[in-house]
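Entry for the shared binder. Reason: the reviewer on the internal report wants the predicted structure included alongside the sequence.
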Amino acid sequence: MRWATRMWWVSAGLLSAAACSNGDHEPVEPGNDLAAVQVSLDQPFRLRIGQSATLPGTGITLTFDGVTEDSRCPTDVTCVWAGNARLALQGHDAAGDRRIELNTTTEPKAAMIGGLRIEVVVLMPETHSETHIRADAYTATFRVTQASR
């Protein structure tokens, strides 16, 4: 009886999560196009793991390498702390290549490259207590702005 009750709750939770999905954060499927995208300053842009963004006229390329930590609070749980996700990027500018790590909650939330500031706007999908996020399912929205002086 306990097993049947648990299975009912798990099924109900999965169906609810699927029904509430708005499709804005579809997982990356093998074979999806990971072509580099051209982005503009001050405009949010979304990257999948392995995808790059170029900023025309700057010589800057950013590649989203992956999520190295994800301790964000699941959406179906009440937490004392929001948790954090750490994202790894590869940055390339006139000075060469460098690794960039950004966080969703803790510092550093932004980094400088070629006189520009890059920050994470949002990481999707959100976490859920009963669901494991595949490494290739993450997408991140970033924004690049002119560095304030």
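Summary line for the report: Strands lie at 37-38, 45-48, 52-55, 60-70, 85-93, 96-103, 110-113, 116-124, 139-146.
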